[in-house]
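Thread: quick sanity check before group meeting

JM: Hey all, I'm pulling together slides for Thursday and realized we never actually wrote out the predicted structure for the chain we discussed last week. Dropping the sequence here so it's in one place. If anyone has concerns about the input, flag it before I start.
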Amino acid sequence: MRWQLKEFSVSDQLNTISPLDGRYGNSVKDLSVYFSEMALMRYRLKVEIEYLIALGNEKGIKELPLFSKDEQTHLRNIYEIFDVADAEEIKEIEVTTNHDVKAVEYYIQGKVKKSLHPWVHFALTSEDVNNLSYSLMWNDGLKKIYLPALQSLNTDLKKLARKYKNTSMLALTHGQPATPTTFGKELAVFCGRLDRQIDPIKSIRLLGKFGGATGTWSAHTVAYPEVDWLHFAKQFIKSIGLEPNLITTQIEPHDSLAESYHQIVRVDTILIDLCRDMWSYISRGILSQKKVKGEVGSSTMPHKINPIQFENAEGNLGIATSLLNHLATKLPVSRMQRDISDSTVLRNQGVVLGHAFLAVQNIQKGLSRITINKKKTEYELNQHWEVLSEALQTLLRKRGKTDAYEQLKSITRGQKIDANILKKFISSLSISKSDKDILLSLNPVNYTGIADKLVETL
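JM (edit): ok, ran it. Output follows.
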């Protein structure tokens, strides 16, 4: 793709309505190649040109001869070498047509010899071009920009998980002290969840239709009844990277797009969970953030280093999720053979992916700034020896103590227990010396089970 990405100037950022095009323009500019108005034109041109070439390859259409390699190159250059001046020309045509797809058709006619004019957009409805274009846009933006960023984030998380696989910390369930874990193992939980979502994102195959005004190939078959249009459509749709959906109304029902949107919703939900946990760890003081020279945390409180990357990400993930859910539930619903309410909605694919992509970048920035405050983690653990009551009552159960749970409950429930109290209790138990040695060797820092081994399974 020959496309010059534009750096967003300060003046650009100051005069836009959307923060994606303004404040965050440089962060999401890579997506403009796939989701801008100019990008939509290019995708439409690609569909129209590739269809024209495919018609020339169809032996049953004798009136349109096979295009030579040079002719095919010339035709493909119409969308491959496409710049702002070309896009502006299409917009000028649209002023007259008041129809964006027809403007593309007329633009192509202006680029080819007159004998080809009848074959541009031959027997098609606009939706034949649009559904393929929007699916190609989403597929390319998703797999070429968003997915690599998500995989990079997951790689960073896995590195941190391995780095901190032995770093003990107090767990909180219901906000209360619970069995200790390690920071690395807690990050590994998110890695595993993301792994499970990344695979289906990579393998999604979006559907496309190409059957005319109401999905019956009526105009096609009137013009060329001897051509196997179903076979033609299958081959053509596959050739541009989509899967054929042959039984449709005027519109492709967007079910496969909805599936893909929901995959991103699941990722967004996982990342919101991650952001909130990271925010909480920073708030507790077990995570510290690196200072950045010149950066200000508060306009009035000089001491602050706020977890703004995780907060910004959480906000953008919420926007993306809300819009994705709307797209996923709106687009598959169309009155009878079609209404056009999907048109304005589909134009927001880049917006939703932009917010999700921006969030991924912010989480990566946030992760790059964190360090473990080991003094704080050890202090928390040593304040809560009562978390070892789980291990004590479990070993006592093994030895047949029927009231083991109740014994530990009576001295620990709702109370903070220090090392001396717990060791005194262990010493008083009627159990073997070897069992006592096991229990006396425990402390909240080393009571982390196989947390380190779990990280290594990633």
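AS: nice. Residues 175 and 211 are 57 Å apart (CA to CA). The chain has a mean pLDDT of 91.
JM: adding both to the slides.
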